Structures are given as C-alpha cells and as structure tokens.
Amino acid sequence: MNQSGTGPVGETPPVMLCLDARFVKPTIVIVEDDKAVRESLRMVLETYGYAVEDFASGEAFLDQQEIGDDRFVVIDAGLPGASGLETLARMRARNGGLETLARMRARNVGLPSVVVSARSDDEMARRARRAGALALLDKPIDIDALLRAIERSAVRGEGVQPRA
C-alpha cells in the first residue's frame, strides 16, 4: 500500500478528477528554498503529468512580470526573507493576473495554493487560511494529499481557466 493506504505502491498515477474538457491541469509553482525538496517535488509532479516552475524564494516568485492565471502554488511557510505566508499575503494584495476567477475575486483570494511546513501548528493553519491557502501540509509532504488539493481546485475551477 502507498502512504495513504489507497492502493499498492507503484500504482499508476491518478487521473485528474475534472472530466470537463474546457479545463486544463494547472502549472504547479513550487516556492521552496531547499533545493533537494524543490527538485524531488518537481520530479514527482512531472511524473503525474504536471508542468512545473520553481523558485528558491518568495521574492523571486513575486518578481515575475507575469504570473499566469492557470497556476497552483506549493509554498514553504519557512522561506528565508519573505516567508511563505508573507508571500501569499503579497500575492493576495496584488491586482490583475493573480485574481483568477470571479468567484476567487469575490473571496479576495489569489492563486490557489498549499502551504507546506516542517513545523506547523493551529496558529499557522489559521494564518495560512487567512492568506488564502487551500491547505497546510506537513513535511515530509504527503503527495496523495497534495494531489487531492490540486485536483479539488481544478474541479472547482479555482486556478484553472476555461480554454478559449
């Protein structure tokens, strides 16, 4: 069985739950200062068919001129400099392309995101929700839980746009 107990190890990666052809898989943006974690997470997500972009800091991510509206952010809470939660707050404060759908605009949420942390607690979970994160995951990252969060956001239309 795999870590979540849902099937055998080596099982074929799950298919996106969203069967509506108007929606596409989001590009996953990893914001993580630990190069080994960043690279291994990239490798796993690419295995599941996701395009991946990665950044070593919140500042590097925020410095992009354009951040597409078909992104899903996986961000470390404990980044040096601008923390993951501070980076999410800055994203939320920005206008323009970061606000992906009317529903998200109404909720004042930026790109759909998951915060990961080696030292999470109830207060961090509250802060992550206030910053707009869909979930707070402990390290080591439960890949099944991360994939479920990504798939749920795609099914709900959070962070993926209909094809033109």
Protein architecture, described:
There is one protein chain. This protein has one domain: 3-Layer(aba) Sandwich (Rossmann fold), CATH 3.40.50. It is 35% helix and 15% strand. The protein contains 6 helices and 5 strands, in the order βαβαβααβαβα. The longest helix has 14 residues. It has 164 residues and is α/β, with parallel strands linked by helices.
Q: In summary, what is this structure?
A:
This is FixJ family two-component response regulator. It is built from 6 helices and 5 strands; from the N terminus they run βαβαβααβαβα.
State the fourth-level CATH superfamily.
Response regulator
Query: What's the helical proportion of residues?
Result: 25-40%
Main sheet: strands, sense, barrel: 5 strands, parallel
How much strand?
A: 5-15%
The CATH architecture classification is 3-Layer(aba) Sandwich
Oligomer: single chain
Q: Care to count the β-strands?
A: 5
Main-sheet strand order equals 2-1-3-4-5
Q: Tell me, briefly, the overall form.
A: globular
Number of helices: 6
* Overall domain count: 1
Helices and strands, in N-to-C order?
Answer: EHEHEHHEHEH
CATH class: Alpha Beta
